[in-house]
């Protein structure tokens, strides 16, 4: 029996082999698994890059759900696109050879990601179309080794990003829209697990053993319960005996009803932003292209997030205790569109000045002052007040901090202390008139550091 199949059956049966264990072993129950502390590196990182890349990057029309929209629900705009641009009888699988990635330079990608200020990256290893960006032995020839790029995209990027000391994560869809094995189980109301045993679990184990990811970003879970996916069995192995048991983090998409309830950090839903402090670590994933996660040739500039919007999203997310996972969609030939590179570089420049208020920060007792559009974070005894609109009177009004005789106020990027005075009945007025507009450390947002306040 092959190793992957053996591992799958062991997982389904809920049996675990011995290995180097933690001081405690996690049982294949949500009560036990949810008690696992989140490895600290994830919360400290605050910001990561999401990459949606696959065969859907070839038609590059509409969204990464192209195949489903075309042949699953027959949306007119997708059906008409195919009629107008491809011959009758054209199959989705015929897009795969054009997924060439001939310009894919993983070192250049890693450099772009590093310059963005991100501390981790999550690559789609397999989206709902089922095409794997590595040589999965259970994918038949529907993978990047046997067709298209003829290279291990997952492995090549893993090597490159780790040169920059970035954490590497893998996105993996549990289900596949049109896989006959999945459709068989679905027809049986998920009482059979043919697809899970023969496809999903072998791929998950292979990804862990081959690439040793720091994040497993699961998706495509919502049609079936976690018992069908045997999620608790896999996660117990991952946390107890896998080579990444002490460092790996996972999300919450492990079966219908799991989102925002079970798992490592919570995604809850795409573009989730609770707007208040949470008692569980969470992540907001969003895309620079507001309308799609995958690359679209019909993308318009007005549909692309501008830099101030990205920065304000980051501030909102981090101030409420979350991480931001910002998505880009590369082209079929392996290039990151210049507009995405420009946005990422701009964010990186902002973080090079203001990152002290972001990385390894903690939420403060006040997260945001809506009336003044100021976001707060804290680190030790320091409080950071961040704003993206320069006050017209050059006076920054902070309503929440309480000053003391030892209060010191500075702006990140400018060493000279700023003048201030206490406001009645509480708060601080920070005078910015001494800051030359020509000496501003950034153009799209600023951070005032407060020491000696309560």
Automatic annotation (TrEMBL):
* Record SMART domains: Alpha_L_fucos
Molecular function GO terms recorded:
alpha-L-fucosidase activity
Write down the position(s) of the site called May be important for catalysis.
Answer: 285
According to its UniProt record, this protein's enzyme class is hydrolase
The record's catalysed reaction(s) read: a neolactoside IV(2)-alpha-Fuc-nLc4Cer(d18:1(4E)) + H2O = a neolactoside nLc4Cer(d18:1(4E)) + L-fucose; a neolactoside IV(2)-alpha-Fuc-nLc4Cer(d18:0) + H2O = a neolactoside nLc4Cer(d18:0) + L-fucose; an alpha-L-fucoside + H2O = L-fucose + an alcohol
Concerning SUPFAM superfamilies, the annotation shows: (Trans)glycosidases
Q: In its keyword annotation, does this UniProt entry include Lipid metabolism?
A: yes
Q: Which domain of life is it from?
A: Eukaryota
UniProt-recorded name of the protein = Alpha-L-fucosidase
**Per the UniProt entry, what species is this protein from, by scientific name?**
Chiloscyllium punctatum
Organism classification, top ranks? Answer: Eukaryota, Metazoa, Chordata, Craniata, Vertebrata
């Amino acid at each position: 029996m092959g190793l992957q199949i053996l591992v799958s059956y062991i997982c389904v049966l809920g049996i675990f082999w011995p290995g180097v264990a933690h001081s405690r072993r996690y049982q294949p129950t949500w009560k036990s698994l949810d008690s696992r502390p989140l490895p600290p590196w994830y919360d400290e990182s605050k910001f990561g890059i999401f990459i949606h890349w696959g065969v859907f990057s070839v038609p590059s029309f509409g969204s990464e759900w192209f195949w489903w929209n075309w042949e699953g629900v027959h949306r007119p705009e997708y059906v008409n696109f195919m009629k107008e641009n491809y011959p009758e009888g054209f199959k989705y699988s015929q897009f795969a050879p054009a997924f060439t990635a001939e310009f894919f330079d993983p070192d250049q990608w890693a450099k772009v990601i590093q310059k963005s200020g991100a501390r981790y990256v999550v690559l789609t290893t397999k989206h709902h179309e089922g095409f794997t960006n590595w040589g999965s032995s259970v994918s038949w020839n529907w993978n990047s080794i046997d067709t298209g790029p003829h290279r291990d995209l997952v492995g090549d990027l893993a090597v490159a990003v780790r040169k920059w000391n970035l954490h590497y994560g893998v996105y993996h869809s549990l289900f596949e829209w049109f896989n006959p094995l999945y459709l068989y189980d679905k027809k049986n109301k998920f009482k059979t697990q043919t697809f899970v045993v023969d496809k999903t679990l072998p791929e998950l184990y292979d990804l862990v053993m081959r690439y040793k990811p720091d994040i497993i970003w699961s998706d495509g879970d919502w049609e079936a319960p976690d018992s069908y996916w045997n999620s608790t069995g896999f996660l117990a192995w991952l946390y107890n005996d896998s080579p990444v048991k002490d460092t790996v983090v996972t999300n919450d998409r492990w079966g219908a009803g799991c989102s925002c309830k079970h798992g490592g950090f919570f995604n809850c839903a795409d573009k989730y932003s609770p707007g208040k402090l949470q008692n569980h670590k969470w992540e907001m994933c969003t895309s620079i292209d507001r309308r799609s996660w995958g690359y679209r040739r019909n993308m318009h500039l007005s549909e692309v997030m501008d830099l101030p919007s990205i920065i304000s999203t980051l501030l909102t997310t981090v101030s409420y205790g979350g991480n931001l996972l910002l998505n880009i969609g590369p082209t079929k030939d392996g290039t990151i569109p210049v507009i995405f590179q420009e946005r990422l570089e701009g964010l990186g420049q902002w973080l090079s000045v203001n990152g002290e208020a972001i990385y390894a920060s903690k939420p403060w007792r006040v997260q945001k002052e809506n009336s003044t559009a100021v976001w707060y974070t804290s680190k030790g005894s320091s409080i950071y007040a961040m704003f993206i609109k320069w006050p017209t009177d050059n006076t920054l009004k902070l309503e929440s901090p309480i000053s003391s005789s030892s209060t010191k106020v500075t702006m990140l990027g400018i060493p000279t202390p700023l003048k201030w005075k206490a406001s009645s009945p509480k708060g601080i007025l920070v005078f910015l008139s001494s800051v030359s507009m020509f000496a501003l450390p950034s153009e799209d947002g600023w951070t005032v550091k407060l020491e000696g306040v309560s």
